[in-house]
Hints:
Order of helices and strands: EEEHEHEHEHEEEEHHHEH
Number of helices: 8
Helix content: 25-40%
Amino acid sequence: xxxxxxxxxxxxxxxxxxxxxxxxxxxxxxxxxxxxxxxxxxxxxxxxxxxxxxxxxxxxxxxxxxxxxxxxxxxxxxxxxxxxxxxxxxxxxxxxxxxxxxxxxxxxxxxxxxxxxxxxxxxxxxxxxxxxxxxxxxxxxxxxxxxxxxxxxxxxxxxxxxxxxxxxxxxxxxxxxxxxxxxxxxxxxxxxxxxxxxxxxxxxxxxxxxxxxxxxxxxxxxxxxxxxxxxxx
Length: 233
């Protein structure tokens, strides 16, 4: 018997790099909006509860045209996100109640049940894990003028995906500390870019890397949408 699991699905971003007036999560992939595919996987999985985080002005649209239309009855809350990704996650956490929290980008339509199962097994053992894959390309670290300054060993570099999964107390502690110290971080130009970084920065927990899929892409640019259409065939 699995413990209670909640998914926070983030759909509050504007997607400027997509160069579209329509937020990327609502663009059509095949005959469904991109956000549909991730929600469908969570709906049909062992996840008990889904919190959908979107822009305040899009809450009613999501309710009528996504949640009700496709009968996603595991979506128990639709909440307004914030300016930055971490604000949106924090709003989702305030609505969640579960042993484990799966945080997922709504613009990643190719998450699978198998990925969720691997992440669940890992979070039960380690308390904190993120889905990702080893990089295929050589990575360069650049200075402020775009000159290469170092080359990390490729077999130690992963590209991080979502879901990122944590015991509830762990992720709540991290985000509570983050919100309390937000101004201090901004003054130091420190940007918290994902949930694992919040946990790494504000707790003593180590974050386990878990195999995802090279197809588990985030749709960010027009080129990504073309790749997604090929995967969806």
